[in-house]
Design goal:
Blueprint: H1 14-20, H2 22-28, E1 33-38, H3 48-61, H4 71-80, H5 88-97, E2 99-106, H6 120-133, E3 138-142, H7 149-161, E4 167-170, H8 184-193, E5 197-200, H9 219-224, E6 230-233, H10 240-249, E7 253-256, H11 261-264, H12 270-275, E8 285-286, H13 300-307, E9 309-310, E10 313-314, H14 318-334
Parallel strand pairs: 1-2, 2-3, 3-4, 4-5, 5-6, 6-7, 7-8
Antiparallel strand pairs: 9-10
The chain binds zinc ion (ZN).
């Protein structure tokens, strides 16, 4: 059913989706939204080298545009979107879209790249302050490059036990694979406390390596550490077939929808986007925006599609859509066996 070409054109006509939703709309308007993939939109947490690489690609893309923009202006425009240091704008945008909670992902670029404003410890403390500033609106999955060794592990443990962080964020393009032996003590800790591990998959800023970010590297750790929920970030669009297979056959592997906003809003890619939900893995798919890279308003079409009908039938069964939009990440978060710390950061 989901493979059928939709009767309405998407992207240009979101209102039509809402109207066509009919009786399903009643049930779906009550669907909860939890965003499983965001970042604080702040230059404090992203090195200048990373941003330089993004602008390099933007400048190449200018060849497609009839109106070229100077590099300085392109950079200024990019950085202007990364000044929400306390996540106040993010919370306002979440409210507009009806997102009750978001997972903040903090990758550690400090081992691989230059131009970091803060140390890992300082970035952890800043994220803890954001948790306190917006109670109940965020969870943090914090990253430490495993090559920082014992000190890095201590930092991560402090994040979990004193700051209340709820998962590990790994960024393999920094130069390590998901099955790198240096990750063993991190996985053992997450295994003991049932904490999730979210891994970037696929390409990124061109200053980093794409090769290590292949999803199949997670196969060994997922088999060994069965208490850990492994989330393949961007798995809906990067190496989709491999990610779907891992989700289908490894009980503890999941993928997120970050990046799929563009497929949902593009009529040429829409069929591929909808096909994802016919693989029998809707209990493994996690809604994620990748804010601030994808602004919240760009997600409306994707959310509407998950809540809408095609020729009188839900595109995705209502119960399964609710799992995707909130239930799956909520289930993963609920597995954590670590006490919430007191508000002053002391371990409970
Ligand atoms: Zn991201």
């Amino acid at each position: 059913m989901l493979r059928r070409r939709p009767a309405i054109s998407i992207g240009s006509n979101q209102e039509a989706i809402r109207k066509q939703s009919g009786s399903n709309q009643e049930a779906t308007t009550h669907m909860r939204l939890i965003d499983g993939h965001t970042h604080v939109a702040s230059t404090h947490f992203i090195p200048t080298e990373f941003m330089d690489g993004i602008v390099d690609n933007m400048m190449e893309q200018m060849h497609l545009s009839p109106v070229p923009v100077a590099r300085e202006r392109a950079m200024a425009r990019l950085l202007a979107g990364y000044q929400d240091h306390d996540a106040d704008i993010q919370v306002r945008e979440m409210d507009k879209l009806g997102i009750e909670k978001s997972v903040l992902l903090l990758p550690d670029f400090t081992y691989a790249l230059k131009g970091n404003a803060y140390t890992v410890d300082e970035m952890f403390a800043r994220h803890w302050q954001i948790l306190q500033r917006h109670p109940g609106r965020f969870e943090v999955f914090a990253g430490v490059d495993p090559r920082w060794g014992r000190d890095g592990l201590a930092t991560f443990q402090r994040g979990v036990e004193q700051y209340g962080f709820r998962g590990l964020k790994l960024y393999p393009p920094c130069g390590y694979q998901a099955d790198d032996p240096a990750l063993t003590p991190f996985y053992e800790y997450c295994q003991e406390y049932h904490l999730p591990v979210l891994l970037h998959t696929g390409s990124t800023s061109p200053v980093l390596a794409f090769g290590p970010a292949v999803p199949m590297h997670v196969d060994g750790p997922a088999r060994r550490y069965t208490n850990i929920s492994f989330i393949l970030a961007h798995g809906a669009v990067n190496y989709q077939e491999e990610c779907v297979n891992l989700c289908r056959y490894r009980p503890n592997v999941y993928l997120d929808l970050s990046g799929a906003q563009w497929s949902a809003a593009n009529p040429h890619h829409l069929a591929d986007f909808l096909k994802l939900f016919s693989n029998g893995i809707n209990h493994k798919i996690i809604f994620g925006t990748d804010w601030p890279i994808n602004k919240y308003h760009l997600n409306s079409t994707m959310i509407d599609l998950l809540r809408s009908e095609d020729q009188g039938r839900p595109r995705v069964p209502v119960r399964e859509a609710q799992l995707i939009l909130a239930g799956n990440i909520e289930r993963i978060l609920a597995k954590a066996r670590v006490a919430r710390p007191a508000a002053d950061g002391a371990a409970a």
